[in-house]
Amino acid sequence: MKTGSLRLRLFAASAISVSVALLLAFLGLGQLFASHVERRAIDELSVQLDQILAGVERDETGQIRIGSAPADARFAAPFGGLYWQIEAEGQQMRSRSLWDFALELPADHLQDGAVHVHDLAGPGNTQVLVMERSVQLPARLGGTPLRAAVAMDAAKLAESTAEFREDLLPYTLVLALFFVTAGVVQVVFGLRPLNAVEQRLARIRTGEEDRVGEDFPSEIRPLAGEVDALLVQREKDIEQARYRAGDLAHGLKTPLQALLGEAGRVREAGLNDTAESIEHIADNMQRHVDRELNRVRIASRGAAARTDLASGVDRVVAVVQKATPSKDLIWDVDAPDTLTVAASTEDLFEILGAILENAARHAQSKVTIEVRRRAGQAVVGVLDDGAGIPIQKIETLMRRGGRQDESGTGLGLAIAQELTETLGGSLKLIPSNPGLMVRIKLPLAAT
User: Fold this and answer.
1) Which end of the chain has fewer CB atoms within 10 angstroms, the N or the C?
2) How much is the pTM?
3) The total number of structural domains that make up the chain
């Protein structure tokens, strides 16, 4: 399924529909105006034709002629754009404007007084609009049939239509801009409830709220209701999983204590190596159990936990200094007092304790701690000036039970990483020269 911006899709649909509608309106109005101009021209030709027929008479020789020519000067100017032609008794009379050109009227038969309109070729390779009428002359004029036609240059009509379209185009473009802008405003306001849903979900993620709610338009309310139902079901599943993990961890603690007791009796029997192996395995299992209990504890606290980071760093540094009296290390701490992380004091102490103990163990003379705020997170950098570790061994060191040497169980960093990730942060080892940099990212508490 294709993805993309719903807002852009609605913008595009609005712009295209408005453009098509206005284009059709522009073309339609132009066609209506052309029809209107043609009707006006036909009305004018009808008036001119009536004037010509009214001027038909016979001269002294009995020949039919136009006694009084129409007053419009275009009839007198060669190719003036307005023409008349009469056919009667085998002779043809034309206006001066036709010059030596004769209108080729179609061979249709009109009843007395009937009118036909044609588009025909005119003088000078032009097209003309022609109105013709057949009449029966009165008895005083001989009672003979007469065919009269009046024509108008069609280019004038097309020119009027083109001028109208030129005048109409700017208004059409202004309307297009207005309707497109109105569509953009409509889309922006119409999609605001979705933005509100997004913001509500973000607050749920940070622990500021626990439900989306129902204060939305009727079209969005079913979506919000389904999300809330999903949140309720997820909370139930997490609660059940938390109980099962807690029960499992607590259920293992008693057998582990019994196993350690058996190791003591094995040691009393003189099997020191076997007892040490059993105690080592039981200790590792105990750490795993403690880790799972910590995860359950963190999940139960949720996003409401808050701890001042600078104070936590200072207290852990003080504890580590007392735990390593044999090393006279310099502790360079740069931590602002304005950062509060979304973690309990116990969780923060366990994470920082594992990291700072590791730094104190490997440092030669100095441990540097720097705390900064970046992109909505608290970033803690811990750098020691020890020998460091090769970059290819970092992945091994961060695995459960992984260690650089044979001293210690190697679970400290792995547990700190798991706790950090459970809190929504991250932990990364970065080789330095000298020493090792540990970078911890923790989410800030909601304000």
Assistant:
1) N
2) 0.50
3) 3
